[in-house]
Amino acid sequence: MDRFNFINPFGVRYQPDTVAGDFYTNNFAKKAESNTIILNLGPQHPSTHGVLRVIVELDGEYVLRAEPVLGYLHRMHEKMGEVKTPWQFLPNMGRVDYLHPIAWNWVHVGAVERLAGITVPERAEYLRVISCELNRVASHLMWWGAFVMDLGGVTPILYAFEEREKINDILQIVSGSRLTISYFRFGGVSADADDRFLRLTAEFVPYLRQRLKMYQALVTDNIILRRRLEKVGPIGVDMCQRYGATGPVLRAAGLNRDTRRDIPYSVYPKFDFNIPTGPVDDCLGRYLVRLAEIEASLSIIEQALESLPAGPILPPKAPKPTFKLPAGESYFAVEGARGQIGLHLISDGGKTPYRVKLRAPGFSNLSLFAEAARGTLLADAIAILGSLDLVIPEVDR
Amino acid sequence: MIKAIIDNIKGLYSLLVGLSITGRFFFSPQKTVHYPRQVVDPEILSSYRGPLELVPGEKDPAQSRCICCQMCVRACPGHCLTVTKEAGSKAPAAYLYDFTYCCLCAACVESCPTGAIRFSHKVYLVADSRQALHLDLLADLKVRASAAPASESAAAEQTGT
After folding, report:
1. Which among B47, B74, B107 is the nearest to A173, CB-wise?
2. What would the CATH number be for the domain defined by A77-396?
3. Is residue B143 domain-shared with residue B78, that is, in the same domain?
4. Is the pLDDT of residue A14 over 80?
5. Number of CB atoms found within 10 A of residue A346's CB
6. Residue B14 with chain A: CB contacts under 8 Å
7. Do the Cβ atoms of A103 and A140 come closer than 8 Å?
8. Per-residue pLDDT tens for B5-29?
9. Which of A349, A393, A391, A325 is nearest to A89 (CA)?
10. Is the pLDDT of residue A9 over 70?
11. Interface confidence (ipTM) of the complex
12. Which residues, in sequence order, are bridge partners of residue A359?
């Protein structure tokens, strides 16, 4: 029986347009094969980490096609960049990606500094590196907990939150906020690190190293997790390059690319850090790469704390909130927890920029999901979605 | 075949390791703070950003340092400040603050030439209506000045309430 052409017992013809829901589902259903199920994942499904909606066509348990539907969290950040002065746009950056706000702070501040030719004092650069890496660790910890929870292990996220709370406490000392941090200013940072910040950070590094050993024994070596992730969702270099995926997804595929080293910015060239590259390109590989990145970040924090220079945190003529951008354009890219973050700033010399373009790594990483999920089990598709480390506000912007 | 059996035994052992870790944490003391009975360490809250408040003047704690230059109003991304001037003087007639629009970004605090505004540390602020979050900061300053005359014990007073 053709599922699109039958009459029900009440004499009503089955009409997919009136039954199956909205435009996206109907459009997706046009290409459906017979005897398949079309399933809506989200936008309120907990495994989609926010309000991502994925429409999948299922043959039994197998995914034939998948299509992400975006836009539920679109907040016009790029447009807001055009109507607000650069200073007023600063707090927006923390809201774009709430798990790694400091990298987004950095990309905006960096683009403005490049355009206006502002030099940053060295102490401010070191504080930027320390806070950004701490934030990256917090982001990876949050991902770790959420990913294992996607796979059915509820306990680990509680351990991850304990560490994350410690990082939040540390970052709150200098930035005043715990989640949507707006710490950077044009030319430097908003507050100097006090003794308590430095002491807590120095204590935190060895503490987390101990905890990472516990994570290894509790989750990474666990046979259930290994069998659940091994050989699931291979994403090769070729697929990454076609979709523009960056960050841990690309590095797990085997390509050693990191903006911190390839397009050096700030004082990163002064540090000796390891860029982990995965031995395997499946979900387990991406899992291991992220855990190894936590260790790399910790070593950067340690080196930065050792060589933290004294001095001012803002240049003598730091821009005030009434600061006007000179005409011109600039691009700045940093390595966020999810990949390369970019900001293209065009100014015509007016009060507000002419155009602000945000390059969100999550958007590119999500686009390869449709291809990676084809032919997998539905439960494995959820594992692939989790291993991409999506933050939906960043995808939708 | 034998390899598969050894793998499975190793896998079972990994489960036991995990259970022993969970068991150890089960018997360790709780780390969460049970709010009404316990409160967070005030040292952590010393950098918390609560709603804005006016800094008391040096001579008269009921008098604001504000000179109505409108820098904060212009810097604010959320347009949540309204400052009106008294005729014939620099003192503000009203300093209205809409906390519902505030994103606590510190643009106003950092743009103020006289250092007249700062963040309070009111962590346990609760309101049951939107109107209650439209704050009149001058009135608030007067209340605080009458509550704690002369000595400005800011830190002690702020973290408690």
Report:
1. B47
2. 1.10.645.10
3. yes
4. no
5. 18
6. 221-223
7. no
8. 888 888 888 888 888 888 888 898 8
9. A325
10. no
11. 0.79
12. A342
Mean pLDDT highest for which of A201-205, A307-311, B32-36? A201-205
Q: Over chain A, what is the mean pLDDT?
A: 86
Q: Is A194 on the interface with B (CB under 8 A)?
A: no
A89 touches chain B (CB under 8 A): yes
Residue B39 is assigned to a structural domain of this protein: no
Which residues touch B12 (CB under 8 Å, ≥6 apart)? Answer: A223
> Residue A281: pLDDT above 60?
yes
Q: Which two tokens stand for residue B155?
A: 């830190």
Domain boundaries, chain A: 16-69, 77-396
Per-residue pLDDT tens over the stretch A214-231: 888 888 888 888 888 888
Chains A, B: CB pairs < 8 Å = 75
d(CA B48, CA A181): 12
Res A5: pLDDT: 61
Residues of A in contact with B48 (CB under 8 A): 172, 176
For residues B54 and B14, membership in a common domain is answered with no
Residues in chain A, how many? Answer: 397
One domain, residues B11 and B59: no
CA dist., res. A338 & res. A69, Å (int): 20
Whether B140 maps to a domain, the answer reads yes
Domain span including residue B60: 45-160
Looking at the structure of chain B, the number of domains it has is 2
Report the pLDDT value the prediction gives residue A6, as an integer from 0 to 100: 61
Cβ neighbours of A148 in B, within 8 Å: none
Query: DSSP assignment of A327-380, as one string?
Result: SEEEEEEEE-SSSEEEEEEEE-SSSS-SEEEEE-HHHHHHHTHHHHTTTSBHHH
Q: Do B49 and A90 touch (CB under 8 A)?
A: no
The alpha carbon of residue B127 is apart from the nearest alpha carbon of chain A, in Å, by: 21
The whole-model pTM stands at 0.86
SS3 (DSSP) at A178: coil
Q: Which two tokens stand for residue A364?
A: 């590119």
- B15 assigned to some structural domain: yes
The pLDDT-based confidence of A346 (bands split at 50, 70, 90) is: very high
